[in-house]
Design a protein that fits this description.
heterodimer, A: OB fold (Dihydrolipoamide Acetyltransferase, E2P), Ubiquitin-like (UB roll), globular, B: 62% helix, disordered N terminus
């Protein structure tokens, strides 16, 4: 039996488009847009002026608190503007616009070879923080915060998230196959920081090649590989922890409450780059896919590259897109256009045709109970639509346990009446947050 | 969404992919699962049964159309739910019921049971059974007049097995069919009298299993309801296994348990709640059959359990993740 959790769904994984495409490096575009908010926490603050020349790897916006993260120039060039720009998550955000000079020249002294074993934990955390590393799985939570849990939380398990349960996405899969040494080094660094002896990599069994490959690679290392059932949302932190350790993160709690820290595979590869070679986070692997992309690919791309440029590099679109999505189709964000920049949390860019998205007219709930059956959090999602329509925030929070919902979208996926439950859930959460203020 | 003909994109909340299943696909799949039993009943009872089907389905669909037009809401007769209500109601009626009664039942089902509550999804009671109950209250004689089946089938009388049981006892039921083996065989294959669509246990069972296989219904309701009847009958019918098998196949139990007690709208939403529903309905069936005034109680047992569904949903809630510690 493969490890799993209660509930969940089995959408078509759609990974056939890009699963066998090796990571391809995309050329640096002429213009890069670098939002100051690419992470959870306080926005970074620009420390360059318009017109200034910057080098690749130079810090151009500094972190403004503990839960914050700096931004670095992904290439050398001139600061063309610091202005409000489109943002794939927030709609718009202050951003630094960089005109590339084509030299792609590193700043002096950024690249340094270091042996992580000889560095202290505080040095390691400082390096990770200054490199602007955040969770690359999509949530973009600053990594130095996660790897430095409060001392009252006793951590006994490090889990590496290679589940990649979202349909279409294959970026993590390719990282595991192509950059295993970097990733393993990142895991060893994380183990040192947490003072642990062993880590577990969780991988869905639809990536059997990665499971077998990493099992071999990790022989003799303090790293185990756990094959997980292919079921969405296997890669959600709480479900992953449940599947691997049998522990349930308590309602309202964090993984650290059950002694677990979870890190994404790509994030740890970035940690290794930063610690051992001094490379800040200036690029990432993005899956460009969907039925409409001419040549779906996994690309290594500089942050700030626009979706349009990335799609163009993949041969453009073969038809009219109904939706452009950043991230996976289950939890990603629908975009109003392609003129938005790739940010640290961009795991995928999907161009979906009407036939890919399915759905149809929203009808009345027939109480079929499919949503209750699949909800991995054990909620009754159908009620949120009713509370949402009636504006009953209090009942949704108290009776429906609204804040337990991670918006995985399983309920909407299965709903035969095509009810937009996550829409109502997001609405209720926003209203609840506004009320508390 | 449909009016987009330029290059604008749809920007809506996640998720951005959906399953193929729709309300209409569910309803029409249930209709398809009933077709073998429907064909058998038309072969068994002939044109009389076909007419009941036609008036019930036509009445239900026509009534839904008229009401939705009057209410000024979207006409949704294509979703198959009114068709299914008419079909299921017809299957629970005696063959040869006059056309105006069929129409009356259909109007009670659709107009009263369904649309006064707000339409599909909001009704408390199973519409098909409300239609049947209204007919039984209005024309008790017509509703219990069982026309003799055509001569293609031997060894049947004009009363239903449960009717004979109520009035003359189990020995007489067995006597009518010759021996208990013949009786159970007739109950299983459907060569017995009864409401139009309830006679053939085997074809209804096949339809029900098809729905379970397709994931349209789960097994919990039919198994708990029929199982409860079987266990009770084993102990109180005085006929042991024969009595248990007889009661499990008799009357409208099989069609009720697989096709009406699984009506998503009117039963609890959690599996645990559905088991409570099934057991409760099974208890009521045996209570009515053995103690009550009617020979058969499936219709009322389901309607009564429909009443307590909101209460079951209130008390039986899914097990939340992250509450109550570790689960291995």
């Amino acid at each position: 039996m493969f490890k799993s959790f209660r509930g969940g769904i089995h959408p078509q994984d759609q990974k056939q488009y890009s699963r066998d495409k090796a990571i391809e490096t995309m050329p640096v575009p002429a213009k890069l847009v670098l939002p100051l908010r690419q992470h959870i926490g306080a926005p970074a603050e620009a420390i360059v002026a318009v017109g200034e020349q910057v080098k690749k790897g130079q810090c151009i916006a500094k972190s403004t608190g503990f839960v914050s993260s700096p931004v670095h120039a992904p290439t050398s060039g001139k600061i063309a503007a610091i202005a409000v720009q489109p943002h794939p998550v927030f709609g718009t955000s202050m951003a630094i616009v960089l005109e590339a000079d084509g030299e792609d020249a590193w700043q002096e002294g950024v690249l340094v070879e270091r042996d992580w074993r000889s560095l202290s934990n505080s040095d390691l955390l400082e390096i990770i923080r200054n490199a602007g590393i955040v969770g690359l799985g999509g949530a973009a939570f600053p990594t130095h915060v996660k790897l430095n849990p409060p001392p009252d939380k006793k951590i006994d398990t490090l889990i590496i998230n290679g589940a990649e349960c979202e349909p279409y996405l294959t970026a993590d899969h390719r990282v595991m196959l192509e950059w295993p040494d970097k990733m393993i080094e990142g895991i060893e660094i994380a183990l040192k920081l947490l003072g642990l002896n062993e880590a577990v990599i969780g991988i869905e069994k639809n990536k059997a090649d990665a499971v077998a490959f990493l099992e071999k690679k990790c022989q003799g290392k303090p790293i185990k590989v756990a094959a997980l059932e292919t079921k969405y949302p296997q890669g959600a932190e709480k479900m992953l922890i449940r599947a691997i350790t049998g522990r349930e993160v308590p309602s309202g709690g964090l993984p650290a409450d059950v002694g677990v820290i979870v890190q994404n595979v790509g994030t740890l590869a970035a940690v290794s780059d930063a610690v051992s070679h001094g490379k800040p986070l200036i690029e990432r692997v993005v899956t460009v896919s969907g039925g409409l992309v001419k040549e779906p690919k996994n690309i290594l791309v500089r942050l700030g590259t626009s979706f349009a440029q990335a799609v163009e590099w993949c041969g453009g679109l073969t038809g009219k897109a109904a939706k452009i999505v950043m991230g996976g189709p289950m939890m990603g964000m629908a975009q109003a256009g392609l003129e938005v920049p790739i940010v640290k949390g961009t795991s995928g860019i999907l161009a979906l045709a009407k036939s890919d998205i399915g759905g149809g007219k929203e009808r009345g709930c027939i109480r079929c109970g499919r949503c209750v059956e699949v909800c991995p959090m054990g909620l009754a999602p159908y009620l949120f639509a009713i509370w949402g329509q009636r504006d009953n925030v209090e009942a949704a929070v108290k009776e429906g346990h609204l804040l337990d919902c991670a918006e995985c979208g399983s309920c909407v996926y299965v709903c035969p009446a095509k009810r937009n439950l996550v829409h109502y859930i997001k609405l209720l959460k926003a209203k609840n947050a506004a009320k508390r203020k | 969404m449909e009016t987009l003909n330029d290059n604008r994109l749809i920007v809506s909340a996640s998720p951005h992919v959906r399953s193929q299943e729709t309300v209409a696909s569910i309803m029409w799949t249930v209709v398809a699962a009933l077709i073998p039993a429907v064909l058998f009943s038309i072969w068994q009872f002939g044109v009389k049964a076909a007419l009941v089907y036609a008036f019930c389905i036509g009445g239900a669909v026509g009534c839904e159309y008229a009401i939705q037009k009057l209410r000024g809401v979207e006409v949704t007769i294509d979703d198959g739910s009114a068709f299914l209500t008419g079909l299921l109601m017809a299957m629970c009626l005696p063959p040869g019921l006059p056309w105006f009664m069929c129409l009356f039942g259909a109007v009670m089902a659709i107009a009263v049971a369904k649309h006064t509550m707000g339409g599909l999804g909001y009704n408390v009671f199973n519409p098909a059974h409300v239609g049947r109950a209204a007919l039984l209250a209005s024309w008790p004689v017509a509703m219990t007049s069982w026309t003799t089946m055509p001569s293609v089938l031997d060894g049947v009388t004009s009363a239903t097995p449960l009717g004979i049981l109520k009035q003359q006892g189990f020995e007489q039921v067995v006597a009518v069919f010759g021996n208990s083996g013949n009786l159970l065989q007739a109950m299983f294959f459907g060569t017995r009298n009864g409401s139009i669509g309830e006679t053939s246990t085997v074809l209804l069972l096949l339809g029900g299993l098809f729905l379970i296989y397709r994931g349209i219904i789960n097994w919990h309701v039919p198994v708990s309801m029929i199982g409860t009847v079987g266990i009770l009958a084993f102990f109180i019918s005085g006929q042991g296994v024969t009595g248990a098998l007889f009661h499990m196949m008799a009357g409208g139990l099989v069609i009720g348990a697989f096709f009406m007690a699984t009506d998503m709208v009117t039963i609890p939403i959690t599996v645990k709640g559905q088991v409570i529903f099934g057991v409760g309905a099974g208890l009521l069936v045996m209570l009515i059959r053995t103690v009550g005034g009617y020979p058969e109680g499936v219709c009322y047992s389901i309607l009564l359990m429909n009443c307590v569904t909101p209460m079951i949903d209130r008390f039986v809630q899914p097990k939340r993740f992250g509450v109550g510690g570790e689960r291995a």
